[in-house]
DNA sequence: ACAGCTCCTG
DNA sequence: CAGGAGCTGT
């Protein structure tokens, strides 16, 4: 019972100190978020359940259409990315669908968007064969386009919309390359990681993200080469696999959507054929950046770090004031505003057959195909939906008849080129949230307990946010917090009942029981190295609960609120690597 | 009116 | 983890 000199001051000094230069309390933050949302939605209020259907249909249509067009037209101002934006604005659905059950993002089953080739043929096998052949050819063409777009990228990068205005770039890049979350022994981050020092908070985040593609200073040329090779191979394999499947599949499969159309998150993908997956792995190595750079011996966080939350902070407390730069520069055209690397990754993964829900690992193909998910919708041609499902303007329209969408001015340089030439880019933006997204969100929880919606948008670039998706993700974090606080309270009370009197005795270490619980909850499988900052926050939370309960404050119905407030101010920067849209995939490798 | 939060429930 | 009720702040 001798309180070891662990934390200097268990009181909310940490929080208070940070507050000095910090963001506003959660309430203000909420208001900002609200304004963010309300500022975006009205322009394209897309909340209705109908909208989802339309969106899916349109997405599919646009996708195929763009592919075809990409074949015929020169790599000109094809606007696949903007098409979505335009379409969105075309459907100002006003219905206030507040019932979430109708717009379950996670299980937006039948009309889930996905790769065109993923759409199993249901009827007219011969025709489908033809189309698949065509698609295959188109894919090859597109590969060329991609490559063309990739080549000039390095030089073109600058003038684009996301031009660098922060001198921190190199440093950021370095820190990114090393270990973003391995806070110790990382001199690069010292400036950025100062928890309360008046050092720059997270201002450099946005500029940085557009830099990732340039992380290969050694040879963009070599990268392109490798990329080309792998891309070629992977695409070929993927297409071949699909084609083969289609050609070999007996007619009985016509009623079997082979799971591709369903896209239920619960199904866990399974759209991908084995070749695609293996190829994906190869590409992954190329397209992704080093993760868990250093295991970082962290068995004992030790008093040192805990004892010096202010001196050697491991976690930069991120100000709530998320810069507007998080927002898409082009409200109506968020796609084009994304960093090129994200597109690249998305394209790659898309080419490799990542499922519509972005979740490609999981049950083997047979698993889903054995399941008879022969819903009326799924049995139809993916691109020919029943009229009931479509608004009049889209009823029996085929892709060919779809008007060319006006090219929205998007001088994003090569970004634009990518978006234009690679129709897959639009494919990838999905309305639903996949298990991968959930996993990623959980990992993000290690850094931020109260993410703003704008931050979420920034870190889930492959998600087409709308009201429902945003709410769902917010809800996720709410659930995360709930679990977190419950554990904290539980262990705090336990400590009290164990006779602990000094909150300083309470520390959350990596070998603590509470850590184990939390880790298994948020980081099942230990895919991620839990950042030290989380331990500090957890320690602080635990102590706050301990103190409150000890003081008998729990008699007050709202006794937790002060604690929430404190914790809400202690969010940290999230490693950029988590922003990558393909990051969750990497977690599925195991 | 709405977004976001907590709390409770299944 | 999702739904829903109820609360709060804007």
TrEMBL record:
Major location (coarse): nucleus
Taxonomic superkingdom: Eukaryota
InterPro entries assigned: Homeo_prospero_dom, Homeo_prospero_dom_sf, Homeodomain-like_sf, Prospero_homeodomain
Compositional bias (Low complexity): 34-46, 361-382
A GO cellular component entry from the record: cytoplasm
GO BP of this protein: anatomical structure formation involved in morphogenesis; cell fate commitment; central nervous system development; embryonic retina morphogenesis in camera-type eye; hepatocyte differentiation; lens fiber cell morphogenesis; lymphatic endothelial cell differentiation; pancreas development
Any GO molecular function: DNA-binding transcription factor activity, RNA polymerase II-specific
Domain Prospero: 430-588
Keyword list, A-Z: DNA-binding, Homeobox, Nucleus, Transcription, Transcription regulation
Subcellular compartments: Nucleus
Biased composition (Polar residues): 173-193
UniProt name for this protein: Prospero homeobox 2
Protein's organism: Peromyscus maniculatus bairdii (Prairie deer mouse)
Gene for this chain: Prox2
């Amino acid at each position: 019972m001798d309180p070891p000199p662990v934390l200097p001051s268990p009181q909310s000094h940490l929080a208070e100190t940070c507050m000095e230069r910090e963001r506003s309390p959660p309430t203000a933050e909420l208001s900002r978020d609200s304004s963010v949302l309300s500022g975006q939605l009205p322009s394209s209020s897309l909340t209705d359940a109908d909208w989802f259907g339309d969106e899916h249909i349109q997405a599919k249509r646009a996708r195929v259409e763009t592919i075809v067009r990409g074949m015929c037209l020169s790599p000109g101002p094809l606007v696949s990315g903007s098409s979505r934006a335009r379409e969105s604005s075309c459907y100002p659905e006003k219905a206030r669908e507040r019932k979430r059950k109708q717009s379950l993002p996670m299980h937006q089953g039948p009309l889930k968007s996905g790769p065109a080739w993923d759409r199993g043929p249901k009827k007219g096998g011969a025709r489908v064969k033809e189309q698949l052949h065509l698609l295959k050819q188109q894919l090859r063409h597109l590969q060329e386009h991609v490559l063309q777009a990739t080549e000039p990228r390095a030089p073109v990068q600058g003038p684009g919309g996301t031009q660098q205005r922060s001198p921190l770039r190199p440093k950021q890049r370095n820190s990114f390359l090393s270990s973003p979350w391995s806070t110790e022994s990382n001199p690069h981050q010292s400036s950025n990681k100062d928890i309360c020092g008046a050092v720059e908070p997270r201002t450099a985040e946005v500029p940085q993200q557009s830099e990732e593609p340039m992380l290969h200073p050694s040879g963009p040329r070599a990268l392109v080469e490798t990329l080309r090779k792998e891309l070629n191979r992977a695409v070929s394999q993927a297409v071949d696999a699909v084609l083969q499947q289609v050609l070999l599949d007996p007619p009985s499969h016509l009623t079997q959507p082979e799971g591709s159309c369903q896209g239920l998150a619960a199904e866990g993908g399974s759209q991908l054929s084995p070749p695609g997956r293996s190829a994906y792995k190869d590409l992954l190595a190329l397209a992704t950046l080093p993760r868990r750079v250093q295991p970082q011996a962290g068995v004992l966080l030790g008093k040192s770090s805990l004892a010096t939350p202010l001196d050697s902070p491991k976690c930069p407390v991120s100000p709530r004031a998320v810069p507007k730069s998080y927002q898409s520069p082009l409200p109506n055209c968020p796609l084009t505003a994304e960093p090129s690397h994200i597109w690249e990754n998305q394209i790659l993964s898309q080419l490799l057959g990542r499922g519509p829900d972005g979740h490609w690992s999981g049950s083997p193909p047979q698993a889903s195909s054995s399941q008879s998910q022969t819903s009326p919708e799924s049995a139809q041609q993916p691109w020919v939906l029943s009229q009931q499902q479509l608004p009049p303007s889209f009823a029996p329209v085929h892709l060919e008849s779809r008007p060319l969408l006006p090219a929205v001015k998007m001088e994003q340089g090569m970004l634009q080129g990518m978006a234009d030439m690679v129709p897959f880019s639009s494919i990838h933006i999905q309305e639903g949230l996949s298990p991968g997204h959930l996993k990623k969100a959980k990992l993000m929880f290690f850094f931020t307990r109260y993410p703003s919606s704008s931050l979420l948008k920034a870190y889930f670039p492959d998600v087409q946010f709308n009201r429902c998706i945003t709410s769902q993700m917010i809800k996720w974090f709410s659930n995360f917090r709930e679990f977190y606080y419950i554990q904290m309270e539980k262990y705090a009370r336990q400590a009290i009942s164990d006779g602990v009197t000094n909150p300083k005795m309470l520390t959350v270490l990596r070998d603590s029981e509470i850590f184990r619980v939390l880790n298994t909850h948020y980081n099942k499988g230990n895919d991620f190295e839990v950042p030290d900052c989380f331990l500090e926050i957890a320690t602080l939370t635990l102590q706050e609960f301990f103190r409150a309960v000890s003081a008998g404050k729990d008699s007050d119905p709202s006794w937790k609120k002060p604690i929430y407030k404190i914790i809400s101010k202690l969010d940290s920067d999230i490693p950029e690597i988590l922003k990558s849209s393909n990051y969750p995939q990497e977690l599925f490798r195991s």
